[in-house]
Design a protein that fits this description.
about 425 residues, alpha+beta, three-stranded antiparallel β-sheet, 15 helices, binds zinc ion
Protein backbone atom coordinates (compact mmCIF):
# COMPACT_ATOMS: atom_id res chain seq x y z
CA UNK A 1 0.00 0.00 0.00
CA UNK A 2 1.12 3.51 -0.70
CA UNK A 3 2.86 5.29 2.12
CA UNK A 4 0.53 8.22 2.71
CA UNK A 5 -2.45 5.94 3.36
CA UNK A 6 -3.11 3.94 6.52
CA UNK A 7 -5.65 1.26 7.31
CA UNK A 8 -8.24 2.18 9.95
CA UNK A 9 -11.21 -0.11 10.68
CA UNK A 10 -10.88 -1.94 7.36
CA UNK A 11 -10.87 1.24 5.27
CA UNK A 12 -7.98 3.31 4.08
CA UNK A 13 -7.60 6.88 5.20
CA UNK A 14 -4.99 9.45 4.38
CA UNK A 15 -2.11 9.68 6.85
CA UNK A 16 -2.25 13.41 7.48
CA UNK A 17 1.34 13.74 8.58
CA UNK A 18 2.63 12.10 5.41
CA UNK A 19 0.15 13.97 3.25
CA UNK A 20 1.38 17.24 4.74
CA UNK A 21 4.93 16.32 3.75
CA UNK A 22 3.83 15.67 0.19
CA UNK A 23 1.92 18.94 0.06
CA UNK A 24 5.02 20.70 1.34
CA UNK A 25 7.09 19.26 -1.50
CA UNK A 26 4.65 20.59 -4.11
CA UNK A 27 4.21 23.96 -2.41
CA UNK A 28 7.94 24.61 -2.04
CA UNK A 29 8.59 23.56 -5.64
CA UNK A 30 5.87 25.89 -6.90
CA UNK A 31 7.56 28.69 -4.93
CA UNK A 32 10.78 28.30 -6.85
CA UNK A 33 12.67 25.82 -4.66
CA UNK A 34 14.87 23.34 -6.49
CA UNK A 35 14.87 19.64 -5.61
CA UNK A 36 18.03 20.00 -3.54
CA UNK A 37 16.62 22.93 -1.57
CA UNK A 38 13.51 20.87 -0.79
CA UNK A 39 15.68 17.97 0.41
CA UNK A 40 17.45 20.39 2.78
CA UNK A 41 14.18 21.83 4.00
CA UNK A 42 12.52 18.45 4.70
CA UNK A 43 15.63 17.24 6.51
CA UNK A 44 15.79 20.43 8.56
CA UNK A 45 12.16 20.00 9.60
CA UNK A 46 12.69 16.30 10.31
CA UNK A 47 9.93 15.18 7.93
CA UNK A 48 9.78 11.41 7.49
CA UNK A 49 9.75 9.61 4.15
CA UNK A 50 7.72 6.52 3.24
CA UNK A 51 10.00 4.28 5.31
CA UNK A 52 9.63 6.43 8.39
CA UNK A 53 13.15 7.80 8.04
CA UNK A 54 14.36 11.35 7.61
CA UNK A 55 16.31 10.43 4.52
CA UNK A 56 15.59 12.57 1.49
CA UNK A 57 17.19 12.71 -1.95
CA UNK A 58 16.57 14.59 -5.17
CA UNK A 59 15.40 11.34 -6.72
CA UNK A 60 12.69 10.95 -4.09
CA UNK A 61 11.53 14.55 -4.55
CA UNK A 62 11.53 14.14 -8.31
CA UNK A 63 9.48 10.95 -8.01
CA UNK A 64 6.90 12.68 -5.81
CA UNK A 65 6.60 15.62 -8.21
CA UNK A 66 6.00 13.28 -11.13
CA UNK A 67 3.42 11.14 -9.38
CA UNK A 68 -0.08 12.01 -10.62
CA UNK A 69 -1.65 9.88 -7.88
CA UNK A 70 -1.28 12.82 -5.52
CA UNK A 71 -3.79 14.83 -7.53
CA UNK A 72 -6.15 11.86 -7.68
CA UNK A 73 -5.13 10.51 -11.07
CA UNK A 74 -3.80 7.20 -12.30
CA UNK A 75 -1.04 7.42 -14.88
CA UNK A 76 -0.80 4.84 -17.67
CA UNK A 77 1.81 4.16 -20.33
CA UNK A 78 4.74 4.85 -18.02
CA UNK A 79 6.54 1.82 -19.38
CA UNK A 80 6.30 -0.31 -22.48
CA UNK A 81 7.46 -3.63 -23.88
CA UNK A 82 10.67 -3.29 -25.87
CA UNK A 83 9.73 -5.91 -28.47
CA UNK A 84 7.53 -8.98 -28.69
CA UNK A 85 10.40 -11.46 -28.57
CA UNK A 86 12.13 -10.31 -25.41
CA UNK A 87 9.06 -8.66 -23.87
CA UNK A 88 11.23 -6.64 -21.52
CA UNK A 89 9.54 -3.67 -19.91
CA UNK A 90 11.39 -0.42 -20.39
CA UNK A 91 10.57 2.95 -18.90
CA UNK A 92 8.81 5.34 -21.22
CA UNK A 93 10.70 8.61 -20.83
CA UNK A 94 8.44 10.59 -23.09
CA UNK A 95 6.11 12.23 -20.58
CA UNK A 96 3.96 13.66 -23.35
CA UNK A 97 2.71 10.16 -24.14
CA UNK A 98 1.54 9.45 -20.58
CA UNK A 99 -2.18 8.99 -20.15
CA UNK A 100 -3.82 10.37 -17.01
CA UNK A 101 -7.17 9.03 -15.81
CA UNK A 102 -9.05 10.36 -12.80
CA UNK A 103 -9.13 7.74 -10.05
CA UNK A 104 -11.76 7.26 -7.37
CA UNK A 105 -9.62 8.24 -4.43
CA UNK A 106 -9.03 11.40 -2.48
CA UNK A 107 -6.35 13.71 -3.90
CA UNK A 108 -3.64 15.17 -1.66
CA UNK A 109 -2.77 18.17 -3.79
CA UNK A 110 -4.94 20.20 -6.15
CA UNK A 111 -4.73 19.61 -9.89
CA UNK A 112 -3.75 23.26 -10.34
CA UNK A 113 -0.76 22.92 -7.98
CA UNK A 114 0.32 19.63 -9.54
CA UNK A 115 0.24 21.09 -13.05
CA UNK A 116 2.05 24.25 -11.95
CA UNK A 117 4.88 22.05 -10.65
CA UNK A 118 4.79 20.08 -13.89
CA UNK A 119 5.14 23.33 -15.84
CA UNK A 120 8.16 24.36 -13.73
CA UNK A 121 9.73 20.91 -14.11
CA UNK A 122 9.38 21.03 -17.85
CA UNK A 123 10.81 24.52 -18.10
CA UNK A 124 13.99 23.46 -16.32
CA UNK A 125 16.97 22.28 -18.28
CA UNK A 126 17.08 18.91 -16.50
CA UNK A 127 14.60 17.76 -19.12
CA UNK A 128 17.42 17.78 -21.60
CA UNK A 129 18.77 14.60 -20.08
CA UNK A 130 17.83 12.06 -22.67
CA UNK A 131 18.88 8.66 -21.43
CA UNK A 132 17.39 6.49 -24.14
CA UNK A 133 18.13 6.44 -27.82
CA UNK A 134 14.61 7.03 -28.94
CA UNK A 135 14.03 10.35 -27.24
CA UNK A 136 17.47 11.52 -28.30
CA UNK A 137 16.56 10.87 -31.92
CA UNK A 138 13.39 12.83 -31.36
CA UNK A 139 15.48 15.69 -30.01
CA UNK A 140 17.61 15.82 -33.10
CA UNK A 141 14.54 15.79 -35.29
CA UNK A 142 13.09 18.80 -33.53
CA UNK A 143 16.27 20.83 -33.99
CA UNK A 144 15.16 21.24 -37.58
CA UNK A 145 12.86 23.90 -36.17
CA UNK A 146 15.40 25.22 -33.69
CA UNK A 147 16.10 28.42 -35.62
CA UNK A 148 12.49 28.90 -36.62
CA UNK A 149 11.77 29.21 -32.89
CA UNK A 150 14.67 31.60 -32.30
CA UNK A 151 14.53 33.97 -35.28
CA UNK A 152 12.44 37.09 -35.34
CA UNK A 153 12.62 39.57 -38.19
CA UNK A 154 13.19 43.31 -37.79
CA UNK A 155 9.64 43.66 -39.15
CA UNK A 156 8.37 41.57 -36.21
CA UNK A 157 7.56 38.54 -38.31
CA UNK A 158 8.68 34.97 -37.71
CA UNK A 159 10.83 32.95 -40.09
CA UNK A 160 10.18 29.81 -42.09
CA UNK A 161 12.71 27.15 -43.00
CA UNK A 162 13.30 26.26 -46.64
CA UNK A 163 15.50 23.97 -48.67
CA UNK A 164 18.18 26.29 -50.03
CA UNK A 165 19.81 23.69 -52.20
CA UNK A 166 21.16 20.16 -52.19
CA UNK A 167 24.82 19.14 -52.02
CA UNK A 168 26.25 16.65 -54.51
CA UNK A 169 25.86 13.85 -51.99
CA UNK A 170 22.22 14.76 -51.46
CA UNK A 171 22.61 16.55 -48.11
CA UNK A 172 20.04 19.36 -47.96
CA UNK A 173 21.20 22.87 -47.11
CA UNK A 174 18.64 24.90 -45.18
CA UNK A 175 17.92 28.58 -45.14
CA UNK A 176 15.48 30.85 -43.33
CA UNK A 177 13.27 33.56 -44.73
CA UNK A 178 11.02 36.13 -43.08
CA UNK A 179 7.36 35.11 -43.42
CA UNK A 180 6.35 38.68 -44.20
CA UNK A 181 8.90 38.72 -47.00
CA UNK A 182 7.72 35.36 -48.28
CA UNK A 183 4.05 36.23 -48.64
CA UNK A 184 4.39 39.88 -49.75
CA UNK A 185 6.20 41.81 -52.45
CA UNK A 186 9.58 43.30 -51.47
CA UNK A 187 9.84 46.69 -49.81
CA UNK A 188 11.57 48.20 -52.85
CA UNK A 189 8.81 46.95 -55.16
CA UNK A 190 6.18 48.42 -52.84
CA UNK A 191 7.93 51.82 -52.78
CA UNK A 192 8.46 51.82 -56.51
CA UNK A 193 4.77 51.18 -57.16
CA UNK A 194 3.52 53.50 -54.43
CA UNK A 195 1.54 50.75 -52.71
CA UNK A 196 0.93 52.61 -49.44
CA UNK A 197 -1.31 49.98 -47.84
CA UNK A 198 0.87 47.03 -48.81
CA UNK A 199 2.78 45.14 -46.11
CA UNK A 200 6.34 44.35 -47.03
CA UNK A 201 9.77 43.36 -45.75
CA UNK A 202 13.19 43.49 -47.35
CA UNK A 203 15.05 41.15 -45.00
CA UNK A 204 17.29 38.75 -46.91
CA UNK A 205 17.31 35.00 -46.38
CA UNK A 206 19.78 33.55 -43.89
CA UNK A 207 21.73 30.36 -44.57
CA UNK A 208 21.63 28.02 -41.58
CA UNK A 209 25.38 27.61 -41.37
CA UNK A 210 25.84 31.34 -40.73
CA UNK A 211 23.53 31.14 -37.71
CA UNK A 212 25.50 28.17 -36.40
CA UNK A 213 28.80 29.94 -36.99
CA UNK A 214 27.62 33.04 -35.12
CA UNK A 215 26.30 30.90 -32.26
CA UNK A 216 29.63 29.12 -31.93
CA UNK A 217 31.58 32.38 -31.87
CA UNK A 218 29.21 33.93 -29.32
CA UNK A 219 29.45 30.99 -26.96
CA UNK A 220 33.23 30.94 -27.31
CA UNK A 221 33.54 34.64 -26.63
CA UNK A 222 30.91 35.08 -23.95
CA UNK A 223 31.83 31.97 -22.05
CA UNK A 224 35.44 31.62 -23.03
CA UNK A 225 36.78 28.22 -22.16
CA UNK A 226 33.91 25.81 -22.60
CA UNK A 227 34.25 23.99 -19.29
CA UNK A 228 34.17 27.24 -17.39
CA UNK A 229 31.22 28.17 -19.55
CA UNK A 230 29.24 25.19 -18.40
CA UNK A 231 29.88 25.93 -14.76
CA UNK A 232 28.95 29.56 -15.31
CA UNK A 233 25.79 28.47 -17.09
CA UNK A 234 24.87 26.22 -14.18
CA UNK A 235 25.39 29.01 -11.70
CA UNK A 236 23.33 31.35 -13.82
CA UNK A 237 20.43 28.93 -13.77
CA UNK A 238 20.79 28.28 -10.09
CA UNK A 239 20.98 31.92 -9.04
CA UNK A 240 17.98 32.55 -11.22
CA UNK A 241 16.04 29.87 -9.34
CA UNK A 242 17.28 30.96 -5.93
CA UNK A 243 16.44 34.54 -6.75
CA UNK A 244 12.84 33.52 -7.22
CA UNK A 245 12.76 31.60 -3.95
CA UNK A 246 14.26 34.33 -1.83
CA UNK A 247 12.15 37.06 -3.37
CA UNK A 248 8.99 35.28 -2.34
CA UNK A 249 10.13 34.10 1.04
CA UNK A 250 11.85 37.29 2.08
CA UNK A 251 12.12 37.88 5.83
CA UNK A 252 12.81 41.61 5.59
CA UNK A 253 9.20 42.89 5.54
CA UNK A 254 8.28 40.72 8.53
CA UNK A 255 11.28 41.91 10.50
CA UNK A 256 10.44 45.54 9.87
CA UNK A 257 6.86 44.88 11.06
CA UNK A 258 8.23 43.42 14.29
CA UNK A 259 10.46 46.46 14.79
CA UNK A 260 7.49 48.76 14.32
CA UNK A 261 5.39 46.95 16.94
CA UNK A 262 8.25 46.98 19.42
CA UNK A 263 8.59 50.75 18.97
CA UNK A 264 4.85 51.13 19.46
CA UNK A 265 5.16 49.23 22.74
CA UNK A 266 7.81 51.66 23.96
CA UNK A 267 5.43 54.50 23.15
CA UNK A 268 2.71 52.88 25.25
CA UNK A 269 5.14 52.69 28.16
CA UNK A 270 6.00 56.37 27.78
CA UNK A 271 2.31 57.27 27.64
CA UNK A 272 1.63 55.15 30.70
CA UNK A 273 4.47 56.87 32.61
CA UNK A 274 3.01 60.25 31.69
CA UNK A 275 -0.31 59.11 33.06
CA UNK A 276 -1.99 59.33 29.65
CA UNK A 277 -2.89 55.64 29.63
CA UNK A 278 -4.94 53.88 32.30
CA UNK A 279 -3.32 50.74 33.65
CA UNK A 280 -5.82 48.23 32.15
CA UNK A 281 -5.71 49.81 28.73
CA UNK A 282 -1.92 49.81 28.80
CA UNK A 283 -1.82 46.13 29.70
CA UNK A 284 -4.32 45.24 26.98
CA UNK A 285 -2.33 47.13 24.33
CA UNK A 286 0.91 45.47 25.45
CA UNK A 287 -0.67 42.05 25.31
CA UNK A 288 -1.99 42.75 21.82
CA UNK A 289 1.48 43.89 20.68
CA UNK A 290 3.16 40.85 22.23
CA UNK A 291 0.74 38.50 20.51
CA UNK A 292 1.35 40.17 17.19
CA UNK A 293 5.11 39.92 17.62
CA UNK A 294 4.84 36.26 18.59
CA UNK A 295 2.76 35.57 15.49
CA UNK A 296 5.24 37.35 13.21
CA UNK A 297 8.16 35.53 14.81
CA UNK A 298 6.41 32.25 14.05
CA UNK A 299 6.08 33.41 10.46
CA UNK A 300 9.78 34.23 10.40
CA UNK A 301 10.65 30.80 11.73
CA UNK A 302 8.58 29.20 9.00
CA UNK A 303 10.78 30.87 6.43
CA UNK A 304 13.71 28.66 5.63
CA UNK A 305 17.16 30.03 4.94
CA UNK A 306 17.66 30.59 1.23
CA UNK A 307 19.79 27.88 -0.37
CA UNK A 308 23.40 29.04 -0.62
CA UNK A 309 24.01 30.28 -4.16
CA UNK A 310 27.72 29.44 -4.23
CA UNK A 311 27.46 25.69 -4.33
CA UNK A 312 26.51 23.71 -7.37
CA UNK A 313 23.68 21.56 -6.06
CA UNK A 314 22.94 18.06 -7.27
CA UNK A 315 20.33 19.36 -9.71
CA UNK A 316 23.09 21.44 -11.14
CA UNK A 317 25.45 18.50 -11.06
CA UNK A 318 23.12 16.67 -13.43
CA UNK A 319 22.99 19.64 -15.75
CA UNK A 320 26.73 20.08 -15.53
CA UNK A 321 27.28 16.46 -16.48
CA UNK A 322 24.83 16.73 -19.31
CA UNK A 323 26.34 19.90 -20.71
CA UNK A 324 29.95 18.82 -20.38
CA UNK A 325 29.09 15.67 -22.27
CA UNK A 326 27.22 17.67 -24.91
CA UNK A 327 29.73 20.45 -25.35
CA UNK A 328 32.62 18.98 -27.23
CA UNK A 329 35.48 21.45 -26.94
CA UNK A 330 37.02 20.25 -30.18
CA UNK A 331 33.69 19.91 -31.95
CA UNK A 332 33.18 21.80 -35.15
CA UNK A 333 29.81 23.16 -34.15
CA UNK A 334 27.72 23.70 -31.06
CA UNK A 335 25.23 21.25 -29.52
CA UNK A 336 21.73 22.37 -30.55
CA UNK A 337 20.54 21.86 -26.97
CA UNK A 338 22.87 24.63 -25.86
CA UNK A 339 21.39 27.04 -28.38
CA UNK A 340 17.91 25.87 -27.52
CA UNK A 341 18.47 26.67 -23.86
CA UNK A 342 20.60 29.78 -23.87
CA UNK A 343 19.53 31.77 -26.92
CA UNK A 344 16.31 33.69 -26.47
CA UNK A 345 15.93 35.38 -29.83
CA UNK A 346 17.96 36.39 -32.91
CA UNK A 347 17.05 39.39 -35.06
CA UNK A 348 18.84 40.54 -38.19
CA UNK A 349 18.82 44.35 -37.97
CA UNK A 350 20.37 44.75 -41.43
CA UNK A 351 21.43 42.39 -44.22
CA UNK A 352 24.62 41.31 -42.46
CA UNK A 353 24.09 42.64 -38.92
CA UNK A 354 22.57 40.50 -36.21
CA UNK A 355 21.40 41.04 -32.67
CA UNK A 356 21.39 38.07 -30.31
CA UNK A 357 19.71 37.91 -26.92
CA UNK A 358 21.01 35.25 -24.55
CA UNK A 359 18.92 34.11 -21.64
CA UNK A 360 19.85 32.67 -18.30
CA UNK A 361 18.33 29.25 -18.59
CA UNK A 362 14.74 30.21 -17.84
CA UNK A 363 13.10 29.50 -21.14
CA UNK A 364 10.78 32.16 -22.50
CA UNK A 365 7.70 31.69 -24.61
CA UNK A 366 7.47 33.28 -28.03
CA UNK A 367 5.46 36.22 -26.69
CA UNK A 368 7.84 36.91 -23.81
CA UNK A 369 10.94 37.26 -25.96
CA UNK A 370 12.79 40.54 -26.09
CA UNK A 371 12.10 42.87 -28.99
CA UNK A 372 15.64 43.43 -30.23
CA UNK A 373 14.55 46.34 -32.41
CA UNK A 374 13.77 48.26 -29.22
CA UNK A 375 16.67 47.55 -26.87
CA UNK A 376 17.60 50.18 -24.31
CA UNK A 377 20.77 48.60 -22.91
CA UNK A 378 24.14 48.38 -24.61
CA UNK A 379 25.25 45.05 -26.03
CA UNK A 380 27.62 43.10 -23.77
CA UNK A 381 29.67 42.22 -26.80
CA UNK A 382 30.03 43.32 -30.44
CA UNK A 383 32.27 41.61 -32.99
CA UNK A 384 32.55 40.85 -36.67
CA UNK A 385 33.15 37.59 -38.48
CA UNK A 386 35.42 37.88 -41.49
CA UNK A 387 35.97 35.70 -44.54
CA UNK A 388 38.89 33.75 -43.01
CA UNK A 389 36.92 32.80 -39.91
CA UNK A 390 33.97 31.70 -41.99
CA UNK A 391 36.23 29.69 -44.29
CA UNK A 392 37.87 27.89 -41.36
CA UNK A 393 34.46 27.12 -39.90
CA UNK A 394 33.23 25.68 -43.21
CA UNK A 395 36.34 23.56 -43.55
CA UNK A 396 36.16 22.11 -40.07
CA UNK A 397 32.51 21.24 -40.70
CA UNK A 398 33.40 19.60 -44.03
CA UNK A 399 31.24 21.97 -46.01
CA UNK A 400 31.77 22.36 -49.80
CA UNK A 401 34.91 24.20 -50.85
CA UNK A 402 33.32 26.59 -53.32
CA UNK A 403 33.20 29.63 -51.09
CA UNK A 404 34.30 32.85 -52.71
CA UNK A 405 35.78 35.91 -51.02
CA UNK A 406 34.09 38.17 -53.59
CA UNK A 407 30.65 36.94 -52.51
CA UNK A 408 31.35 37.40 -48.82
CA UNK A 409 30.30 40.28 -46.56
CA UNK A 410 31.51 40.37 -42.96
CA UNK A 411 28.89 39.59 -40.35
CA UNK A 412 28.39 42.01 -37.47
CA UNK A 413 27.13 40.46 -34.25
CA UNK A 414 25.77 42.26 -31.18
CA UNK A 415 25.09 40.21 -28.08
CA UNK A 416 22.66 41.24 -25.33
CA UNK A 417 22.07 39.68 -21.93
ZN1 LIG B 1 10.63 40.68 -42.10
Amino acid sequence: MTWWVIKVNRTYVINEEQAATIRMVFTLYSQGYGEKAIVNELSRLGRKDGHGNVSWSCTKISRILRNATYMGYVCYNKSKVNNYLEKKRINNLDETSFVYVKGNFEPIVSEALWHECERIRKSRIVNLRLPDGETRRKGIDSTKYLWVAKLRCCCGSSYRIFNWRKLKDGTPVFGYQCNMRTVNPTRSFVLEHNMTQQLSCDAISIPEWKLELMAKKIFEKVWGNQNKAILRACKMIESCQNGKATARMSAAPIQSKIEKIKKRKLNYAAMRADGELPREEYQALCKQADNEVARLEQELKALSPAPEPQTVSSDMKAIYDFLSQKVDVHGACLAPELIEQFVEVVTPIADYSYRWKLNTGCKKSKEERTDLMAVSEKPILTFTINFETAKRYRESNKMPHQFRRAAWTDLTVEVYL
